[in-house]
Amino acid sequence: MTLAIFDLDNTLLAGDSDHAWGEFLVEEGMVDAQTYRQANDRFYQEYLNGELDVFEYQRFALQPLSTHSMAELEAWRKAFMAKKVLPMMQDKARNLLAEHRDQGHTLMIITATNRFITEPIAEALGVDYLIATEPELVNGRFTGEVAGTPSFQEGKVVRLNDWLAAHGESLDGAWFYSDSHNDAPLLKLVQHPVAVDPDPTLEKLARDRGWPVMSLRD
Q1: Do 100 and 201 fall into the same domain?
Q2: What is the pLDDT of residue 218?
Q3: Residue of 7, 16, 18, 197 marked active site
Q4: Which of 31, 60, 122, 137 could form a disulfide with 130 if both were Cys (CB 3.0 to 4.6 A apart)?
Q5: Residue 28's domain is classified under what CATH number?
Q6: CATH number of the domain that 136 lies in?
């Protein structure tokens, strides 16, 4: 098995699904607009700066999930996919996935964004394997807490290694595509790291290390 691993937000998608989910909740009147938007924007900037406390952020992001039924949440998610996610889909990203699929590679998305948001996105992109931050579920309802290790920064390496061990696989010949310096720990591990529309910090790292730099923006 040769893995072709992809970050999701601002890599396969032309935007950030996690931040867009917060915007969606504000626009639909499901949260207090001013306070939620301010916090959502603050956390996003901290992420860009490499300063995010992932547990603090995930508690913020998962709290609205904990106060509604699964039926309500699934209806919201369907609307979110149509209004926010589909406009972020990129033809070049689909083509890149197809190129790896045609080579017989196993496709995986690994993302810090939680599984509730990202699972239908992975399905829409035809990617079979998804490693995402796991929201805790108890008796069919979200608790607002994270289950296990968030797949963020070094946590992506931890979660991927767990997956490899469970499947009896390795990173031999693996690819990893990402836009973010937060993914440097995993980019440094794979044989084929690729910077995709990288932030300035990742672009410098890629240039210094001789990694390919590409764009998927249409």
Answers
A1: yes
A2: 76
A3: 7
A4: 122
A5: 1.20.1440.100
A6: 3.40.50.1000
187 within 8 A of 178, measured Cβ to Cβ:
yes
The two tokens of residue 57 are: 């952020």
CB 217 within 8 A of CB 32: no
Q: Are 134 and 146 in contact (CB under 8 A)?
A: yes
Amino acid at 132: A
Helix H segments across the chain? 17-27, 33-48, 54-66, 70-80, 91-102, 115-124, 154-167, 184-187, 200-209
Tokens standing for 200? 């300035």
Active-site residue 7, yes or no? yes
Bridge partners of 214, per DSSP, are 196
Q: Which two tokens stand for residue 148?
A: 């296990």
**49 CB-side CA count, 13 A:** 9
Strand partners, 146: 135
Q: What is the mean pLDDT of each run of 10 residues along the chain (218 residues)?
A: 97 96 93 92 93 93 92 96 98 98 98 97 97 96 95 97 97 98 98 98 98 95
Q: What's the DSSP call for residue 197?
A: S
- If 0-12 CB within 10 Å is exposed, 13-18 middle and 19+ buried, where does residue 91 land? exposed
Write out the two tokens for 64: 């609205």
Query: What range does the domain containing 27 cover?
Result: 17-87
The catalytic residue among 9, 18, 183, 197 is 9
Strand 141-147 with 175-178, pairing: unpaired
111 and 144 share one domain: yes
